Amino acid sequence: MNGAGSDFATRLAQETRRLGTPLCVGIDPHLDxxxxxxxxxxxxxxxxxxxxxxxxxxxxFIERLVGRVGIIKPxxxxxxxxxxxxxxxxxxxxxxxxxxxxxxxxxxxRGDIGSTSEAYANSYLTPGSFLESDALTVQxxxxxxxxxxxxxxxxxxxxxxxxxxxTSNQGARDFQDQHINGEPLYLxxxxxxxxxxxxxxxxxxxxxxxxxxxxxxxxxxLKLREVLPRSLFLVPGYGAQGASAVDxxxxxxxGPDGILEGGIVNTSRMVLFPQTGYDTTTKxxxxxxxxxxxxxxxxxxxxxxxx
Length: 307
What we know:
This protein is of the alpha/beta class. The chain has helices spanning 8-19, 48-65, 76-80, 84-99, 114-125, 144-157, 173-176, 185-199, 218-227, 245-248, 269-272, 282-303, and strands at 23-27, 71-74, 103-110, 135-138, 160-166, 179-180, 183-184, 207-213, 231-235, 253-254, 260-261, 263-267.
């Protein structure tokens, strides 16, 4: 790890306390929603100029976030569909964001066995890699041997992991709620991760082993907090999927100053794509983004008890 206090969990806790918000902004550049201000041609994902449009949009958007939020979460699929040009855009966006002081959690949901996981871990969690990120989403359903390369990199370099445990989508019930020996699978996964959470707690405060816990299941977030008291929660489902700010914070706990903390609340479309009045001029678009961002931060602050 690059020195005491430089691990992901410590930096994230410091940034959320400094900025006063646990907001994580998802970078999900839906091609059909990118405003006219940035569009080039018909935005067909197979055309080279589409990657140029996505790059301009993402860079301009991230400029609006600097100094207001501490972390972003690019979803790799929206860049992969653009081919090598899209991956180059993602590399540039992640590098630019990190230079600007933003933490980057790459939403790639990786998890495979043996050398495949080693290669993924090299790609995203190793210093100097072309898609170097501060944290990565991973899935546990091929077993702990599939997670070990990611865990090892997180331990060595102080990077973060967010393991899919209780996701926000409706279909999560198909498997995650199924009972094994009287206990739902999502809780069983959390119990297996408890030792890893301790292993990756490099600061003694918050662990670099986090989990994904959907805001759409707030009561289950409370159960997961009991099992993983020092794991950061990455909470999707706020806004577009119907969860409230209060629901999103159910798994949080009082921090040193009495304010709730213990994770990040992700939203993408609520900030990224204003509904009206934003697609004709740069100033109009910037104001719409700033207004959306301010509204989301205010809602979360009120839920934190800081209105």
